[in-house]
Amino acid sequence: MENVPNIDHIDVNTVTEEVTKIFGKNGRSKLKALVKNEKVYSNIDKLKEDMEILADKSAFDELLTFEKAYFENFESFNSNHRSGHMVLTGFNTMYSRSNMATMKSVHSIKNDDNVYQYEVQLNSNGPMRIGWATQKCTFTDEQGVGETENSYGFDGYRLEKWSMSNATIYGRKWRVGNIIGCTIDLTHKSMEFFNNGQSLGVISEELLNKGDLTYFPALTLSEEENVTVNLGGRPFKFPVLRSNPIIDSPIVLINYFRQLEKNMIALIDTQISLNKMNVSSILSYSKLFFKLYSDFIFSDEE
Q: What's the rounded Cα separation, in Å, for the pair 70 and 64?
């Protein structure tokens, strides 16, 4: 298994689902039989050789190293931007371990004419405030987002919007699994929150200042509440029209996969008909390919 490309964090259910889409029921056994069928290739070494030539192994390893470093080191949140006991795990999932804990992103929006968005997946549905804050906002275990000057938040548990310590009725009740979209528009001095892509209403805030203040995604969670935040490093579940992510996801490896998939299909297509192939996602299939490449083709198991 040396020098076999490895894609981490591939969910077994996702792999099984994608294999089924491509090869039908019993896809795992069909695929294994396919790649070991001498009518396709006389031996596995030849298949491995052709794939590594197409993949340009050294270039792939370099790209993969770069992309993994991007995801592992490109922090969205860290302990220097929090108050209270907030536990931050992988993929920007955060848990509150104190009565009130607040976390502010290390990335801000740009002071320009664009609308900016981020998303929050609710892993619990209790009291939380999701919104925006400036660099100078200072939070405590008693004051969270919306309770300090120049911070604004939405609480879908209490159905409130918060700013300058004032709460007014807003939104609709949120539930576990909901995706809360948050946008800010400095040009029109407004922000907007969404629940699974449905707008909860535009909020006008005359104090939003494009010239002097810089805004960051910020969240306050009550004890035991937890969420997963996406600033744009992964595709949004419900992208808002004409909005921009806080951070951009890397595309070098994605583009590489797109080209590689074309080459791989062309390679195999010379040996076997793939008329029934229905690839719903280039990236998903490419990740799947290398997972299967590792698990099946070079496995000693029969």
A: 10
Which pLDDT belongs to residue 205? 84
Q: Dig out the tokens for 213 from the structure.
A: 């203040």
Contacts of residue 173, defined as CB under 8 A and 6 or more positions apart, other chains included, come to: 156, 157, 159
Look at residue 69 in the predicted model and tell me its pLDDT. Answer: 53
d(CA 302, CA 300): 6
DSSP state at residue 147: S
Q: Which residues contact 79 (CB under 8 A, 6 or more apart)?
A: 88
Find, among 106, 138, 136, 132, the residue nearest to 212 by Cα.
136
Count CB atoms within 10 A of the CB of residue 26. 11
| Residue 80 neighbours by CB distance under 10 Å | 8
Residues 6+ apart with CB under 8 A from 62: none
Q: What average pLDDT values come out for the chain (302 residues) when binned by 10 residues?
A: 38 53 54 48 48 55 55 66 86 90 92 93 96 92 92 97 93 97 94 97 82 89 94 88 82 52 55 40 45 42 40
Asked if 99 and 223 touch (Cβ cutoff 8 Å), the reply is yes
pTM of the model: 0.61
Residue 149: both structure tokens together: 């000057």
- Cα–Cα–Cα angle for 147, 126, 194, nearest 5°? 75
Find all residues with CB under 8 Å of 121, minimum gap 6, and list them. 177, 178, 179, 180, 227, 228, 229, 230, 237
